[in-house]
Amino acid sequence: MSAVRRVAARLPVAAWLCVGVALLNGAAWSVIVPPFHVPDEIVHFAYVQYLAETGDAPRHVAGRQLSDEQQQTLESLRFFGVVGHREARPIWTDSAQSQLESVLSSDLSRVGDGATSTAVNNPPLFYAVQVVPYRLASGGTILDQLFVMRLLSVLLSALTVLAVFLFLREVFPGTAWAWTIGALAVAFQPLFAFISTGVNNDSGLYLASAALFLVLARICRRGLTRRRAIVLGAVVGLGLITKLTFVAFVPAVALALALLLWREREDRWRVVRLGLIAAAVALLPVVVYLGLNELWGRSVYGGLSGGESFTDFVGRSGSLREKVSYIWQLYLPRLPFQADLIPGVAARNLWLNGLIGNFGWLDYGFAQWIYDAGFAVAIALAGLALLGAARAREALWRGRGELAVFAVAAIGLMVVIGQMGYTAHVGSPYPFEQARYLLPLAPLYAAAIVLAARAGGVRWGRSLGVAIVLLLATHGLLAQLLTLARYYG
Amino acid sequence: MRTRLLLVAGLAAVAVVVAITLAPSEPRRSGTNNVPLAGPVASLPPGAAACQREDVPEQTRVVRLHVDAADGRPRPVVRVGDDGASGRRVRRVADGTVDVTLARDAPEGSAEVCVRNAGARTLDVLGYPTGERRGRPTGPIAFDYYRAGSESWWQVAPAVAQRMSFGKSGLLGGWALWLAVALVLIAWALAARALWLIGAPER
Q1: What is the domain extent for residue B97?
Q2: Which residues contact B86 (CB under 8 A, 6 or more apart)?
Q3: What confidence score (pLDDT) does residue B159 get?
Q4: Closest residue in B to A470 (Cα–Cα)
């Protein structure tokens, strides 16, 4: 505890301000977005409720996903009529509110069947942590519990922003003003704030990913010590039992350790020993999780294979060649010899437009001109970031090993998303990919923003950074107004 | 100094953007029955009416319908409740979408809402078909309710504040909108402070 306090005391004021911004902005989102309207929030809440009420995790069995209490509350909120229907609105009248209140006070069962849902494959760490606010608010209604749980998610998002700040401090040690620019860009990013506001294990994944980027930057720059090995192992282990997508970062961790091994050739056994310590620490939570799965009667790794189907839809098997082509087209322009597997340009339609804003259960967004303007801004920022990178080319060349680690992390995540997307493409009636799945790369987004600001050089860099943050924060504010209009206007 | 001046100017510009965004005066919704538009649910010969029970929101002056008139000139008459408001002033909003303005605000709460065809040809009213009667689809009619006249977001803010208090945690009470506004303002103030600090001259 005293170590945490020591670290906290060493943080610059700007770091605390960025954390405060993320906390307050996230809390505002959590108040604005109606209950359960963050993607998949109903099944994530159900997971927590089932875990809290039974001490057991949901599994792939037939039955009710939701408790009577949650089901009837959702119906009283008209949730199923509103989600996915942009023109529909939540309850707005006294009589509907009275009906809801009578459901909330009717002492309905809080235990469902813990049956198959899209959340069942997830490891339990995020849900176990959410049991704490669930219990703390258990004297209130289900909506009180959800609200307090959302605040915990907001806290995780604020810690993510802190990790991004510290990552930037590590990567750009000589440009203190840039740490604030990058961290605020993440804090105000509307999709990040919107998703982080809900009960969704993505907020745990964002924190674990940002922490991993921070640790990787530290060990690449300062070398591996026993403490850093333990922290690296802990971050990897806890990340893996937060969301299985985290496995995408394991190759980057392996590359970082290999680089250290190469760099410290003369003392390679020390690196090997510390690497083994990291691996042992990482394995510990994974082994505990595997044991819990045995106890809970779930498949060995909670469905890591993703083989379970949620629908009666029978797809086709696909092929490796087509899968590679699919993953390519998810991020890059289609090559002439490739079959058109994804309509339009995914880089823009899916990822960029999604990051600009596709909210709710993907049921509302901005007017088209905002996406067009956002595209122009993104091109301008990318150009500035390239210019900033060119200005810092000597430093970047010196840190090429570290850059390779970050690149492998990004590619790993993109491939894992593509792999799951292709599985859905051939085997499910529903598309899988959503822009939020790229948000674990928030530290790299922040670094790109910093490079863009640094394109202004010593004379204009700070001013350019302030202008960029104001633009991005305004984007976040407009997304909040859009959300108010969607549900209450 | 330059950075701080830019910050102040930028914040002023953001305030202007927000003011402009919230300024346009338009018809504002008072509620909806959330019935999705999927097809005709009532086929009304001249003089016939279709009714359904609705939870009518407060401050409703206009009822929006989706219709298909055989002669292209829909003339629906809407009545809300037995002794409630009725209206026959029809405004075409878009193809197949008409607003019927009531003589006065409809009484809030549960009421029968009826659509009568005052035209010379058959009028199809749209909603969500759930069954059939005598070979014709039936189901709930889609109604959207609007407040009188046109208003800016600033004018409609008290209504938004009230709506935000419904369906929320009791911990928020009736203060959800104002709490959100306060949180956003403080977040921006902290961000401004952080950006102000980076504008400090280097030591």
Answers
A1: 29-146
A2: B77, B78, B79, B80, B102, B103
A3: 96
A4: B10
